Amino acid sequence: MSRVLVVEDESAIAELISINLRHAGYEVTLAASADQARAAVDAVLPDLVLLDWMLPGQSGLALAKQWRAVARTRELPIIMLTARSDEADKIGGLDAGADDYLTKPFSTKELLARIRAVLRRKVPEALDSAVEAGGLRLDPATRRVARVGTDGVREVKVGPTEFRLLHFFMTHPERVHSRAQLLDRVWGDHVFIEERTVDVHVKRLREALQPVQCATLIETVRGAGYRFAPQPGGAP
Ligand code: CA
Predict the structure, then answer these.
(1) From the first residue on, what is the mean pLDDT of each consecutive set of 10 residues in the chain (236 residues)?
(2) Top-level class of domain 3-122
(3) Which of 75, 139, 173, 206 gives 215 a disulfide partner, CB atoms 3.0 to 4.6 angstroms apart?
């Protein structure tokens, strides 16, 4: 399930957005100011932020710039919401690092379409599309994992956390992910969970993949973290 942080000070609009997003299957957190939004992101990294431009105190624009300046939130998908339709403001929002821009009032249909487009581009693991990599097929909609080989299809049983971890690995192959990054992207939390937790779940995931000879897809990169390597030995 994708986590969306809605930063909006007008409670009626915030409520309406959150009802619609929850109905569409998103997990929603609300923040009514830049300070609340910062605290929410510091605690749990969302998959996407809907960020109102005009907030009491610090503006959404200034907040977006701050997030873009920090490594942990540099890639955080942000859709700016605003009542303004001024072209100069729109350019300002995109310059500040927003991935997209919605002018109020907007329809729920448009909002959902924009969210999906940004997620598809930036956070493929937050979507429900099936993925195939390294001879494995993972389907978030049915929550199934299978080894797909010339000898047929063999189902792989994995626990819920291992499923999310494998989903993240398969949608981000070849790259090395540190334990802190995995906590942020898979658990949504880098502060309250120990990094050793990652090792425990990677071990479980390898055990689950062992019966179909796929445990070696998850490589340990000494001193750095883990990598999903569909091609043994890393990318050519
Ligand atoms: Ca506002």
Answers:
(1) 93 96 95 97 93 92 93 92 72 80 91 93 83 94 92 94 96 92 84 88 98 95 95 52
(2) alpha beta
(3) 206
How far, CA to CA in Å, does 184 sit from each of 73, 119, 168, 190, 211?
10, 16, 11, 5, 29
Q: Which CATH number fits domain 131-228: 3.40.50.10490, 3.90.700.10, 1.25.40.10, 1.10.10.10?
A: 1.10.10.10
Whole-number Å distance, alpha carbon 19 to ligand 1 midpoint, is 18
Ligand 1 geometric centre to CA of 96 (Å): 18
pLDDT tens, position by position, 15-74: 999 999 999 999 999 999 999 999 999 998 999 999 999 899 999 999 999 999 998 899
Q: Ligand 1: distance of its center to the CA of 71 in Å? A: 27
CA 9–ligand 1 middle distance (angstroms): 5
Query: In this structure, how many other beta carbons lie within 10 angstroms of the beta carbon of residue 102?
Result: 18
